[in-house]
Amino acid sequence: MFETVRLRGPVGSLLWGDDPTAVAAALGPWTATRGRNRRAWVLRATVRAVDTYRIRQVPLLFQARQAQRPFAHWLFPVVPQSVRVQGGALVANLGPPEG
Questions:
Q1: Averaged pLDDT for residues 13-27
Q2: Which domain holds residue 38?
Q3: Is residue 14 part of a domain?
Q4: In terms of DSSP bridges, do strands 84-86 and 41-50 run parallel, antiparallel, or are they unpaired?
Q5: Does a structural domain hold residue 99?
Q6: Is residue 16 part of a domain?
Q7: What pLDDT, on a 0 to 100 scale, did the predictor assign at position 24?
Q8: Domain count of the chain?
Q9: Are 36 and 2 within 8 A, CB to CB?
Q10: What is the mean pLDDT of the chain?
Q11: DSSP string, 16-76
Q12: How confident is residue 37, by pLDDT bands cut at 50, 70 and 90?
């Protein structure tokens, strides 16, 4: 089938738990890529703002709107301890999409 799957968008966020107001990181342009290992996704994003306390909490969820469906969104669990923020860039490992 596909060797690599890539999703991308203009904005997204990392949420702490299931509270949509508990934003751990506000993200600008992002890509989520799944390689040959069908369960492993990697998120790369530009960081707009980070809450230094919330970004270290568990569970974190990556959420972003789907451009082709205005009321739908992508939702991925973030693998614990995998978030790395350096300068204005964020990299994190994601689990399989939810919902």
A1: 94
A2: 5-94
A3: yes
A4: unpaired
A5: no
A6: yes
A7: 98
A8: 1
A9: no
A10: 91
A11: ETT-TT-EEEEEEEEEEEE-SSTT-EEEEEEEEEE-TTGGGSS-EEEEEE-TTSTT-EEEE
A12: low
